[in-house]
Amino acid sequence: MDLGLRGKWALVCAASKGLGRGCAQALAAEGANVVITARGAEALEATAVALRAASPGVTVVAVAGDITTPAGRAAALVAAPQIDILVNNAGGPPPGDFRDWTPEHWHAAVEANMVTPIELIKATVDRMAERGYGRIVNITSSSVKAPIDFLGLSNGARSGLTGFVAGIARQPRLATRNVTINNLLPGSFDTDRLRAGFTSQAAKLGKTVDDMRAAREKTIPAGRFGTAEEFGQFCAFLCSQQAGYYTGQNVLLDGGAYPGTY
Question: How confident is the model at residue 18 (pLDDT cuts 50, 70, 90)?
């Protein structure tokens, strides 16, 4: 299936590794030019080299910087002639007990996982509407659907973004102009963040990392963790011309782990 992305320009945040890289890889494979951002310049450039090698017909621009800052956002936004596709992504806040969190912890979480995506949407969405094409995908978390008690910072900040998107995605001046905004909610994917979590939990509980992995996999009906590649391919479809009638939705990609009917 041709997704109709050839020649489009995509900005993919936190794309040096993990789910962000998977999204950039899938979009480039469909012929989209990509601007990729991340704080680590070395890893980001390595990803850019790999993307160029895999998809030689597209332009890949690497912009190292902190997308959660005004300067980082400005640098990323000017790196492309236009932004047709925006994939919002940022590392989640740390786990912990809400009793230990200060207002500064909350401010940082909201800045990274709510304010930053909103600022990037604000900077791009009206021009998308003027051109009659736009796709915005916010990578959030399955915790928006089923909150995780020790990820309260993430639960709160990402839920705020979810509520915002529910309203703006349905504005007629966007929805009638072929601009869609959706949230992609990952469950357990085999990324550095997941592996780091297992290492931390194993140390606290006196278990091995393999024990932690096996226990988590048993909770997933699919019997495995997701891959960044398949996550990226799903994201690419949400950005496609075929997905123009799909907006304002929360798409849970978790191998069936969420037990609810709705």
Answer: very high
